[in-house]
Amino acid sequence: MPTSDPHTHVIDYRAAEQLLAARDPRGAVKLLDSVIAAHPENTAARLLRARAFFAAAQLRPAELEFELVLEREPDNAFAHFALARTFERSGRPEQAKRHFRLAAALDPRPEYLQAARFDTDPHPDPGGTPDPGSTED
C-alpha cells in the first residue's frame, strides 16, 4: 500500500477550502474524504467537510459531522451555530433553537444572538424585520 506524503493532506485541505469558497462543495468533500481517512482525528477537516455537506444540501451527513465535531469540541460556538442552521434547514426548529442558544452563550456575536433570539422581543413590532424561518409564537 503506497504511503502518502503528509504534505499532500495539507495541500488537499487548503484546496478543499478554495473549492468551498468557489462554490464547489462536492469537490471539497472529495478532497476531504482522503484527508479524514488518513487523519480521522482532524477536527478542522471534519468541520470543513460538514460545511461542504451543508453547502451541497447534504443535510444528514452535515448534521453527523457537526455532531462529531461537537463531541470533540463542545465549546465550538461556530459548530453549534452551523448545526443549528442544519436543523433549521431540515425543518427541526426546536433542535435548531437549542444550538443557536448554545452558540450565543459561548460567543455573543451579533449573528449568534440574533439567531438565538436573545436580542429580540418574542413579539416584535409589525414594522420590524421578520425573522425568516421563525416558527415561534
From TrEMBL:
SMART domains in the cross-refs: TPR
Compositional bias of kind Low complexity: 126-137
TPR repeats: 77-110
UniProt-annotated stretches for the region Disordered: 112-137
UniProtKB keywords: Repeat, TPR repeat
Range of residues in the leader sequence: none
Domain of life: Bacteria
Protein name: Tetratricopeptide repeat protein
Gene source species: Streptomyces tsukubensis (strain DSM 42081 / NBRC 108919 / NRRL 18488 / 9993)
